[in-house]
Amino acid sequence: MDVASATAFERAVDGALDGQGGEFQLDFSALTFTDSTGVRSVMQAHNKVASLGSRMVILSPTAPVLRVLEFMGLDQVMDVRDDARR
């Protein structure tokens, strides 16, 4: 996810949010790259979800994406897990 795809991600998140509480899951198993623009978009999504009283969960990030999330400390701010159900 980069400057070319972040806007589409943000629109997809906005479209998927229905204003209800609970858990909002994002499957990152096919995402192989993110830059600072992508990280910003993920943080904005996290903040929107939290403002609705929900919890955002990032499922199955690939190793490169997980490294970025960990480097930025986002794994300490949001729920990042390996989805064993795949």
Descriptive terms for the model:
alpha/beta, Transcription Regulator spoIIAA, single chain
Order of helices and strands: HEHEHE
What percentage of amino acids are in beta strands?
Answer: 15-25%
Radius of gyration over alpha carbons? Answer: 12 Å
CATH topology category name: Transcription Regulator spoIIAA
- The count of DSSP E runs of length 2 or more, i.e. the number of strands, is 3
- Overall residue-averaged pLDDT value: 89
Briefly, what CATH class?
Alpha Beta
CATH architecture: 2-Layer Sandwich
CATH homologous group name: STAS domain
Span between termini: 22 Å
| Largest beta sheet: strand ordering | 1-2-3
Main sheet properties: 3 strands, parallel
Helix content: 40-55%
In terms of structural class, how would the helical and strand content be classed?
alpha/beta
Count of alpha/pi helices: 3
- Spans of at least 5 consecutive residues with low confidence: none
Query: What oligomeric arrangement do these chains adopt?
Result: single chain
Q: What coarse outline follows from CA principal-axis ratios? A: globular
**Domain tally:** 1
